[in-house]
Amino acid sequence: MQNALVNFPDETASQERCAVVRLALTDFRCYAHLRLDADARPAVLTGANGAGKTNLLEAISFLAPGRGLRRARMQDVTRSDAPVDESPGALRWGVASTLEAAGGAVEVGTGFASVGDGDDGGRRVVRINGMNTRSQSALSEILAVVWLVPDMDRLFMDSAGRRRRFLDRLVAGFDPAHTTRLNEYEQAMRERTRLLRDDRAGFRAADAGWIAALEQRMAESGIAVAAARRDFVNRLGAACKLTAGPFPAAGITLVGDAEGWLDHGAALEAEDRFRAALADSRTADREIGRALTGPHRSDIQVVHLAKNCPAAVCSTGEQKALLISIVLAHARLVALDRGASPLLLMDEIVAHLDAERRAALFDEICAIGAQAWMTGTDQELFEQFGDRAQYFRVDNANVQTV
Ligand SMILES: Nc1ncnc2c1ncn2[C@@H]1O[C@H](COP(=O)(O)OP(=O)(O)O)[C@@H](O)[C@H]1O
Ligand SMILES: [Mg+2]
User: pLDDT tens digits for 320-366?
Assistant: First the structure.
């Protein structure tokens, strides 16, 4: 078992790589038009500050559900000099791609389209093999995308919300239905908050029934969210302990009410307890304007296992190494379970790693069979990849193969 995980065979990995092999950007940040052909190997993007490297990674991050690696407002992504076309359906920005996925080639496109009601009006569109899809969740079925960007260096000291988003992206990479569950939960929660707020005088009978129905939906989807996180964290824990090489093994624990209920009973009991807790806290939730309990409040605690030290008090370098270790363990797990590794977007990762750690990172990426998109200012730092990677030079919103 241990060997099967650690020595993931190269041949299998390369057949089952999930990779971007063509990328076309339109009015995306600094890119008016860009077309890029790639192969399935890891891709190294180098260039000066401000050249457009992170923007390219951000474009790829939109091939997964959500707001991308900068959590941007959609209208901010539109190239600032782009002519504004407000006719309904006109694309403000677009990312088109050809992916090599486990099941064959897939065309995935996404963008932000005008709805024709003024400057900022628009909606996210997603096309898979030429067909519009109603929900972004369909993207999770095709590929998993995970990123590490410089502002995640302080993730372990940051807000619980950021850690939860990181966790949920990992869970969705492992279990695509997670995105849908989360959306259902958040939608029911928003509606409940709105109903509570609009009903300041007390609980009108008509609303009380509707609030109870929303709490039922929150209980079902919320416990499903918590159960998926719990299942994933258990599996990741096993994969993390097998980590070899210079990246430290991480221990991950989920902390939250919903997780506690699942520790002490079956899912149905946990749903009952959650529903009862929601019903009890209506008055308090109305006062404060949000639900006080539920999986939207959960957090993760990460420990550097070898040092038996909470991640938040480790050195900055150790924290970064822990994050890399978690992302690699996740990629290994997803590759084994889904038959294709996630796309990895690693912005400015290697600059702070010594030569041994850089070599170990490159070896691990190749062993997992992941197409990692990595950026840096200095191509020499990627030397140890050799011809296992492909190289691009980014210069003033221009991308050339090296
Ligand atoms: N909406 C936008 N329209 C035009 N340019 C943008 C937009 N958003 C960001 N930029 C510009 O893109 C340039 C490249 O950014 P970035 O990809 O972050 O560079 P780097 O190569 O350092 O990672 C920056 O100069 C930034 O001002
Ligand atoms: Mg950058």
Answer: 999 999 999 999 999 998 889 999 999 999 988 999 999 999 999 99
> Contact 391/358 with Cβ under 8 angstroms?
no
Check pocket membership of 80 for ligand 1, CB cut-off 6 A.
Answer: yes
Ligand 1 center from residue 19 Cα (angstroms): 24
Indicate whether 221 pLDDT > 60: yes
Residue 188 burial (10 A CB sphere; 0-12, 13-18, 19+): buried
Predicted local distance difference test score (pLDDT) of residue 16: 60
Distance CA 44, CA 332 (A): 21
pLDDT interval class at 8 (50, 70, 90) = very low
Could you tell me if the CB of 47 is within 6 A of ligand 1? yes
Alpha-carbon span 261 to 256, nearest angstrom: 9
221 within ligand 1 shell (Cβ under 6 A): no
Residue 80: which H helix or E strand, with range?
none
- The partner residues of 34 in beta bridges, in order of sequence, read 25
Which residues neighbour 269 within 8 Å (Cβ) at sequence distance 6 or greater? 261
Q: Is the CB of 50 under 6 A from ligand 1?
A: yes
pLDDT of 144 strictly over 60: yes
Ligand that lies nearest to the alpha carbon of residue 395, given by its number in the listed order:
1
What's the pLDDT band for 202 if we cut at 50, 70, 90?
low
Ligand 1 pocket residue status of 341, Cβ below 6 Å: no
Distance (Å, whole) CA 17 – CA 21: 11
Is residue 335 within 8 Å of 16, Cβ to Cβ? Answer: yes
Give the residue whose CA is nearest to atom 13 of ligand 1: 50
Question: How is residue 84 annotated by DSSP?
Answer: P
What is the Å distance from ligand 2's center to 351 Cα?
12
Query: Which atom number of ligand 1 is nearest to the Cα of residue 45?
Result: 21
Q: Which domains are present in the chain? A: 1-143+340-402 (3.40.50.300), 155-316 (1.20.1050.90)
Cβ-in-10-Å burial (0-12, 13-18, 19+) of 217 comes to middle
Alpha carbon distance 111, 29 (integer Å)? 12
Check if 192 has its Cβ closer than 6 Å to any atom of ligand 1: no
Q: Does residue 218 have a pLDDT over 90?
A: yes
Burial of 1 (0-12, 13-18, 19+ CB in 10 A): exposed
